[in-house]
Amino acid sequence: MTMTRMELVCPAGTPATLRAAVQAGADAVYCGFRDETNARNFPGLNFSRDELAEGVRFAHDHGSKVLVAINTFARVDDVDTWKKAADSAAESGADAIIAADFAVLDHVARNHKQIRLHLSVQAAAATPEAIGFYAAQFGIRRVVLPRVLSLQEITALNRAIDVETEAFVFGGLCVMIEGRCYLSSYATGKSPNLNGVCSPPEMVSYDEEPSGTTARLSGFTIDRYERGQPVGYPTLCKGKFKADGKTSHLFEDPVSLNAGGMISGLKAAGVTALKIEGRQRGKGYVSEVVRAFRKAVDAVEKGGDAIDVDRLLAGQSEGARQTAGAYEKKWR
Amino acid sequence: MRPLNAEPMLPGFVRHLFPTVAGLPLGPLLTLSLRALAGRRPGLFERLGEYRSACFVIDPVDLAFAFRVVPDGQRSSVRVVSKDEAAQSDVLIKGPLLTLLGLLDGTLDGDAMFFSRIISISGRTEAVLALRNTIEDAELRPADLLGLRGSLARCVDTGVLGALGVARRLAENNPSEARKA
Prior knowledge:
The structure holds two protein chains of two kinds. Chain A is α/β, with parallel strands linked by helices. Chain A folds into two domains: 7-173 and 255-328, TIM Barrel; 182-249, no CATH class. Chain A has helices at residues 15-24, 49-61, 79-91, 102-111, 128-138, 151-160, 182-188, 263-268, 283-301, 309-312, and strands at 7-11, 28-31, 65-69, 96-99, 116-119, 142-144, 164-171, 204-209, 212-217, 220-225, 240-243, 246-249, 256-258, 273-276, 322-323. The longest helix of chain A has 19 residues, at 283-301. Chain B has one domain: Nonspecific Lipid-transfer Protein, Chain A (2-Layer Sandwich), CATH 3.30.1050.10. Chain B is built from eight helices and five strands, in the order ααββββααβαααα. In chain B, strands 3-2-1-4-5 form a five-stranded mixed sheet. Classes of the chains: A alpha/beta, B alpha+beta. At the A-B interface, helix 1, strand 8 and helix 9 of A face helix 4, strand 5 and helix 5 of B.
């Protein structure tokens, strides 16, 4: 069990959001460059080299860290783009690089020993052997855990490894191998890894129809919503489909992870850092979620109970519904 | 507590003022304002990338007209259009005026407003995302749109944002009265 204060790691898709996250109480902010080297490559999102350097200065001036996600898998003919992104992150004075690709991990380990390496959730490393391999080969200092592990499994994992662990506590969930959704690739013909999203926005439509709103991805109907009914992200895994004559959320319910009530459990399990998902979300979301989790983490660190994060953040959840996800899983 | 999808519509007395306002040359004034903003902050529009030439129609559901915006830096244009013309665009964003203004000044989160159906979007989703992210990062204040600086800018920001806050509280406290107006 770790006795150090848990770190709150928060998302930032723009410089303004980085500042908002820091001012709301983030211990660390993670962000990426405005290209396909990070897994949130959305239109209008992310940082230029200059913006990152300025963001690092701002964060450091306020006692926060910056972690740079270069966490997609490089293309065979263009590894240099990923290496240059890592070089730029190191030059910016950022505190860590979050990576998954062996080529990026190896490049950073060999050329930028001063910067910490965190293993991205995209690597889907969930066993002591896998994490031990990354630690031995590349000197990773922290692993971001896939969102498929229970508290008991995280506890066992932390006892067996020598690196820090970072666990998601709020935001979207993924039922596939993290970042490699073959369902999305089939429907869109694009890589969710390089294009940064399960549902490339240019292929998404919300069509207003007489019966309500229909969400489609690449022409596939994902869900239909009656007027006034909350809607969710247009992701295939959370769509409603008919199978064996029954219409249901076949793969996953449209809910968001909220482990606000499990912070003390995660601390007891040995988790070093708590991660909020949502670099694609706006400043209002980031400010509100970070403030709520700041209070909750501080309460737990003082030996008290976490505040009622669930109630505070109901309006920020996808489909206005929340789950503790795999942390409480009763299935395999 | 206000339901998540309750729309904070403009209070009745404000809505009654708008026929007068609509008679003003709002389009040319907003066009000048946007172009002047692009002159002062040229980097602001870079985030839009290829979508700066897209046509966005912003349709406040509690007003009788909509705005047709092409946010192309110093070639930007804003036109006041009828609701019928609103459909002819790359993107249509509909919602109560106070909510739309809250998105512009960063008070409200666009995704949360969309999930709870307070705003609706149709058209090119990627262009909406680029616009949302650009506006988020711009951190626009009322004085930015008016080209004001210094203490006058601070006074205007305080006054306008304060007035918007009061209008939102009025709308949230009495949504049914506002709808009747």
